[in-house]
Amino acid sequence: MRQLIRHIYLSSVGWFSKISPGVHIMNSHYLDGPQDEAMDRFYNLLRKLRSDMEFVNFQDAVEMVSKNNFGNGKYLSFSFDDGYRDNYTSVWPVLRQFNVNACVFVNPGFIDIKQHNQVNFFAEKHHTKKVRKPMTWEMIRQLASAGFKIGDHSYNHIDLGILEPAKYPLEILMSKQRIEREIGEPCEYFAWPYGKLHNISQPAIDYLLENYEYIFSSDNSNAYFSYNNERIINRRHFEASWPIHHVKYFLSFRKTTK
């Protein structure tokens, strides 16, 4: 019942919502459902959004936000977390039709895990027994060669709000080094797992800012930055299966720099 009420409310209010000016950096994980249907839904959602917004590459959106350089334009950029295989098989083909990239934040431990252990990985990290395959490193290299940005999401999708600082080199620095070794270019972006402000500690923030140009949350999305730091950028969660009016509702909130 709660989901039905939410759907009716967002559909009704979203019908009248107007997308606010600014740079909206979106965050998702995968396209849900059968591949062809999921790709069609994602394509149709983007087609409708593009009538109101300009799509920009992820690195350009980051620069625009960090320099407060976007005027009254309406800009949209994309990111996907965890490194699921459909980021390569489904997301990339759709975004390519709009001539825009995304940043894919990957967990090297997920990519390297043996197939028979993937159930355990998901049960522990995402509280589900449903298995979604990760990309291979070759797929990730192809995305990077095509202009996608490859970001870090920690080695094993660890909650940095409770991780002891002694383990930062393993979960953060080793992850960054592994990504850079595989793609042959610097890894400048980090999105912390689970994304909420309580999922990261001040020591973790300090460590990340020493090793990355920018770090990203999935929280506090009506503000551009968290912790009064212009290198900690907030993203707006969305699902590719959401109706257009739901997405427009969330994009209607004017973002602040606080």
Any overview of this molecule?
The strands form two sheets. Strands 1, 2, 3, 4, 5 and 10 form a six-stranded parallel beta sheet that branches. The longest helix has 16 residues. The chain has one domain: Alpha-Beta Barrel (TIM Barrel), CATH 3.20.20. The chain has 258 residues and is α/β, with parallel strands linked by helices. Strand 6, helix 9 and strand 7 form a beta-alpha-beta unit. The chain is built from ten helices and ten strands.
The gist of it:
The chain has 258 residues and is of the alpha/beta class. It has ten helices and ten strands. The chain has helices spanning 2-16, 35-50, 58-66, 86-97, 108-112, 118-126, 137-145, 168-183, 202-211, 244-251; strands at 22-28, 54-55, 74-82, 103-106, 149-152, 189-191, 214-217, 225-226, 229-234, 236-237.
The Rg value, from CA coordinates, equals 18 Å
- What are the low-pLDDT stretches, counting only 5+ consecutive residues below 50? none
Task: Name the average pLDDT.
Answer: 91
Task: Tell me the span between the first and last alpha carbons.
Answer: 35 Å
The count of helical stretches stands at: 10
Order of helices and strands: HEHEHEHEHHHEHEHEEEEH
CATH architecture: Alpha-Beta Barrel
Structural class: alpha/beta
| Secondary structure: number of strands | 10
Helical content stands at: 40-55%
Q: Quick one: overall form?
A: globular
Largest sheet: 6 strands, parallel
Number of domains: 1
CATH topology: TIM Barrel
Top CATH class? Alpha Beta
The fraction of residues assigned to DSSP E strands is: 15-25%
> CATH homologous superfamily?
Glycoside hydrolase/deacetylase
